[in-house]
Write a structure and sequence with these properties.
This protein is an all-beta fold. It has strands at about 5, 10, 20-25, 35-40, 45-50, 60, 70-75, 80-85, 90-100, 105-110. It is globular.
Length: about 110
């Protein structure tokens, strides 16, 4: 079965860190552009966060650049998002997605004191 499964979300205080994981099955991520997107509470639509390309440097939204790092382990077929210096406005459900629209079920990140 082709699927993406996110994990690693949780409750963290402002300034804290989390690492999200996205395990892929049924296909090989190494040949795909993979991204993280998020859905914030009380906001419409998904916000793009970061993209990891099959080759080349990753890209980031201005709101997370310098704080978040996207990476992939092709041997484990897993995508990651290291999130540092978290802010309350980073609170959202985070999804990993393949460039053709396949998306996981999401993992909740809550940044609150």
């Amino acid at each position: 079965e082709v699927q993406l499964v996110e994990s690693g979300g949780g409750l963290v205080q402002p300034g804290g860190s989390l690492r999200l994981s996205c395990a892929a099955s049924g296909f090989t991520i190494s040949v795909y552009e993979m991204k993280w997107v998020r859905q914030a509470p009380r906001k419409e639509g998904l916000e793009w966060v970061s993209t990891s390309y099959a080759s080349g440097r990753p890209t980031y939204a201005d709101s997370v650049r310098g704080r978040f790092t996207i990476s992939r382990d092709n041997a484990k077929n897993t995508l990651y998002l290291q999130m540092n210096s978290l802010k309350t406005e980073d609170t959202a459900v985070y999804y990993c997605a393949r460039d053709d629209g396949l998306r996981g079920q999401g993992t909740q990140v809550t940044v609150s004191s």
